[in-house]
Amino acid sequence: MNMRFEQAVIFAGGRGERLRPLTDRIPKPMAPVLGKPFLDYLFKALTDAGIKQILILAGYRAENIIDYYGPVLSDATTVAYSVGTEEDQTGRRLLNAYEMLDDHFLLLYGDNYWKPPLHVMIRNYVSLGLPVTTTIFSNKNGTAEYGPENNVHFTPDHRVQAYDKSRKSKDLNGVDIGFFLMDKNVIDPHEEGNISFEETILTRLVKKRDVGAFVTDEQYYYITSLDSLRKFEEIAKREELGFIDH
């Protein structure tokens, strides 16, 4: 099956409380890394993977992102925006953008950095035959955001059996880092309420056994605190991570 994933949809609307006072002035994805916004590095990783359309689910200080990037990222990549309120949770942001979503799309968080091997992920998605897959970091050396603590359990046949944001359940064997491959049809555009994607939509899909796993040993990075932001800056410098030229 020739399935195309050319759109990346990015959660980028939260206040980023743990990055204060930096986020008193800018939204978290715009946090500076070696003089460039964090999003520049994430956009580079996405466009290198073959993404041609980016949809930002914005909220808090959305104008900072819109004014900086505008509608065109490069000759090959466009940017669109769905702007909600600061209080909107992730599920509400996604539902509000329903009409802007491709039939199949890559969904991710605006504070996680990872280089998605998109073609390999798509092969895994098609092979599993499920409407959603999520990327799971194996966390073999305890280098995830919460050290050795995991938040998902996946089976040997790569189905996600449990998602536990509290990280307290038994048999958790990986960390969900997002980078979901999604079929738009699993989202109900008529669903009401200010819901969380993770706690409502994803949890419901896991219970239906509709979520597969793409498992990786490749380290991911995050900018959820000032310490982790400084660490990512050191990594970006040491590994000479690329950023988008726009």
* Strand line-up in the sheet with most strands: 5-6-4-1-7-12-9-13
Rounded radius of gyration (Å): 17 Å
Q: Which structural class best describes the helix and strand composition?
A: alpha/beta
Tell me the distance between the termini. 34 Å
Low-confidence stretches: none
Named CATH architecture: Alpha-Beta Complex
User: Share of helix among residues?
Assistant: 10-25%
The total count of strands amounts to: 14
What is the number of domains? 1
- Give the CATH topology: Spore Coat Polysaccharide Biosynthesis Protein SpsA, Chain A
- CATH class placement: Alpha Beta
Count of alpha/pi helices: 6
Largest sheet: 8 strands, mixed
Oligomer category: single chain
What's the helix-strand series? EEEHEHEEHEEHEEEEHEEH
CATH-defined superfamily: Spore Coat Polysaccharide Biosynthesis Protein SpsA, Chain A
Please describe the structure with a list of short key phrases separated by commas or semicolons.
single chain; 246 residues; alpha/beta; Spore Coat Polysaccharide Biosynthesis Protein SpsA, Chain A; 8-stranded mixed sheet; two-stranded antiparallel sheet; 6 helices; 14 strands; 25% helix; 26% strand
Question: Your description of this structure?
Answer:
The chain is globular, with a radius of gyration of 17 Å. The chain has helices at 38-48, 62-69, 90-96, 118-128, 197-207, 226-238; strands spanning 7-12, 32-33, 36-37, 53-58, 72-74, 77-83, 104-109, 112-113, 132-137, 152-154, 160-163, 175-183, 211-216, 221-222. The model has no long low-confidence stretch (mean pLDDT 93). It contains six helices and 14 strands. The strands form four sheets. It has an eight-stranded mixed sheet, with helices on both faces. The protein has a single domain (7-238), classed as Spore Coat Polysaccharide Biosynthesis Protein SpsA, Chain A (Alpha-Beta Complex). The chain is an alpha/beta fold and 246 residues long.
